[in-house]
Amino acid sequence: RAYVFGEDVKFGGVFRCTSGLADAFGTHRVFNTPLCEQGLVGFGIGLAAMGNRAIAEIQFGDYIFPAFDQATAKFRYRSGNAFNCGGLTVRSPYGAVGHGGHYHSQSPEAFFCHVPGLKVVIPRNPSQAKGLLLASIRDPNPVIFFEPKWLYRLSVDEVPEGDYMLPLSKAEVIREGTDITLVAWGAQLAVMQQACAEAEKEGISCELIDLRTLIPWDKELVEASVNKTGKLIVSHEAPVTGGFGAEIAATIAERCFLRLEAPIARVCGLDTPFPLVFEPFYMPTANKVSMA
């Protein structure tokens, strides 16, 4: 019942994520499609509505926002629970890649976090990607699964061969600390880990949290951490204005107001198109996090 389709997936895709699948399962289940993101999502909606598992791969996540907003996420609601698109998972590369410029390095996750009925998942490494992707495919809700481009060729990890799932909407504390809470997702976790190591040299104990699922996100775990540390930094590659970090900051300000010892800080991308040669100035680097 599972189908994988999208741009170039038949031969393995640009990032070789689907290598060997067509040979193993046949070209009737693993196949290329035209370069039309909304058509891809529309086709996936039809497959999912018929009880299949549709895994679509697209190149530019922000182009498909109308299809997700009007059809995918609201199908169950509009049909009075008679139909749903719970079998649809859309995989999309996103984020900085070192040479992507203003189209190929965008981080549009906040667009999709504004769509009720849709789950947004972002892994930080290969083993997380496998467990979270399997959970996304089997979840009864439509999911957009953002894969950080940095990680395709840079991240090295031991990935279990067997079938396993990691829980959606459950953040993970990957470094315990007492002085300040840091929250991030995707490739930004590696940057935050560098900043934590630098802070430790100055006697600052950082607690680092990987959110993993942005919608619905694990408010309780972040709240508990901030109640312990009294401080919070949120970091993401997307522009700071309207980024998902603002939602986290607002929520924690409400829940932890009496425990906060300093204003919540956001270390994010700039409010500009993603630059090419000036990417190092745009990116939320470990130095910027350390300064914050």
Automatic annotation (TrEMBL):
GO biological process: branched-chain amino acid catabolic process; response to nutrient
Domain (Transketolase-like pyrimidine-binding) ranges: 1-154
GO molecular function: branched-chain 2-oxo acid dehydrogenase activity
Alphabetical UniProt keywords: Mitochondrion, Oxidoreductase, Transit peptide
Catalytic activity from the UniProt record: N(6)-[(R)-lipoyl]-L-lysyl-[protein] + 3-methyl-2-oxobutanoate + H(+) = N(6)-[(R)-S(8)-2-methylpropanoyldihydrolipoyl]-L-lysyl-[protein] + CO2
One Pfam family named in its UniProt record: Transket_pyr
EC number per UniProt: 1.2.4.4
Cellular component GO terms, alphabetical: branched-chain alpha-ketoacid dehydrogenase complex; mitochondrial matrix
UniProt keyword Transmembrane helix, yes or no: no
Necessary cofactors: thiamine diphosphate
Keyword Mitochondrion: yes
Top-level enzyme category: oxidoreductase
Annotated compartments: Mitochondrion matrix
Subunit structure of this chain's protein: Heterotetramer of alpha and beta chains.
Descriptive protein name: 3-methyl-2-oxobutanoate dehydrogenase (2-methylpropanoyl-transferring)
Organism: Selaginella moellendorffii
